[in-house]
Design goal:
15% strand; 326 residues; alpha/beta; binds iron/sulfur cluster
């Protein structure tokens, strides 16, 4: 059996390899951006879900760099959330909200999503001991939760991850360690027995928020990987981004919500797209998003409807765009 590291090395990083694999014909090849500013990175599992010669499929839209990324739109900028400003309290810590903060555990991901709001930054920290970050957390007793993000925290080796988790686990005032990860979708083999053993040893409550945008991203291996987490009493939630051509229909959102709840996974957030340079072609209007959520609410139970939210700089929490009565 291949290890997750082997599978990671098999990901498509060369666009010429990916376009050949996808059997793109000339008219589709002309739509591809062969010199993207955000490099191509697509795990084979995800490439296998793209029908041949089809760039309009939701999986293709999410991962194949298109010339549409070169569209300039004045509202779409490199740092719409002002993450490079005062909220960055150490090279790898973003402290925006009361009680919780975001630790950019690594800049590396299992895949490169074309709409990623951190695609213009290098968050790679050379210091995998996270000394400054741990000191900051220890000195702030108001913190009750640390969110491990990135990049993707599961890109860290087990040794580095274990070291970080064990230190966090010893900080009394912390109650929850939350992972934000897309690894289980692209390389579910990352949920290894070794990783589960590390998680089992922790005293703190662990929460996993998995980034997933459409039902096609689930398959048997993904389901099994997520079940290994829920079997440890780790709540698994989803977060998605509302993306044109990917999930901007009540049908697609319903399929995703039902696919999640049938696996014991609760829809948490549906994010309005952050206005990041290169992602304007993914934008869905706010009113359209609200209408989609209202329609979704008619078709699935309340617990299967994610909160439709936007993130604005200087706001002390995410902003709900619609509040539904259950
Ligand atoms: S996995 Fe997350 S951080 Fe990585 S490219 Fe995708 S959206 Fe960005």
């Amino acid at each position: 059996m291949k290890t997750w590291r082997m599978l990671q090395k098999e990901s498509f990083t060369k666009l010429s390899d990916l376009t050949t694999y996808l059997e793109l014909t000339q008219d589709n090849l002309e739509l591809v951006d062969f010199s993207p500013h955000f490099p191509c990175l697509v795990p084979r599992r995800l490439a296998e879900k793209i029908p041949k010669n089809c760039l309009t499929h939701p999986m293709a839209r999410q991962f194949v760099p298109l010339k549409e990324e070169k569209w300039e739109s004045p509202d779409f900028i490199e740092d719409p959330l002002c993450e490079q400003g005062g909220v960055r309290v150490t090279p790898s810590l973003l402290h925006k909200y009361d009680g919780r903060l975001l630790l950019i555990a690594t800049g590396a991901c299992a895949m490169h999503c074309r709409y990623c709001f951190r695609q213009h930054f290098s968050y790679q920290s050379e210091d995998k001991s996270f000394t400054q970050e741990l000191d900051y957390i220890r000195q702030n007793p108001t913190l009750h939760e640390v969110i491990l993000s990135g990049g993707d925290p599961l890109s860290l080796s087990d040794d580095h991850l274990e070291n970080l988790l064990m230190h966090l686990d010893q900080i009394d005032h912390l109650q929850v360690i939350r992972f934000h990860s897309r690894f289980p979708i692209g390389i579910p083999e990352r949920i290894t027995d070794e990783l589960l053993t590390i998680l089992k040893r922790l005293k703190k409550q662990i929460v996993f928020v998995v980034h997933i945008n459409c039902a096609d991203e689930y398959d048997e291996e993904v389901t099994q990987a997520l079940r290994k987490l829920t079997a440890l009493s780790i709540p698994v939630l989803t977060q998605s981004v509302l993306l044109k051509g990917v999930n901007d229909s009540a049908l697609a959102l319903k399929a995703l919500s039902l696919a999640s709840i049938s696996r014991g996974i609760l829809p948490y957030y549906l994010h309005k797209l952050d206005k990041i340079r290169g992602a304007a072609h993914f934008e869905v209007g706010e009113n359209e998003g609200i209408a989609l959520i209202k329609e979704l609410r008619k078709q699935v139970p309340g617990y299967a409807v994610p909160q439709f939210v936007a993130e604005y700089p200087k706001e002390r929490s995410k902003t709900p765009l619609i509040v539904l009565q259950n």
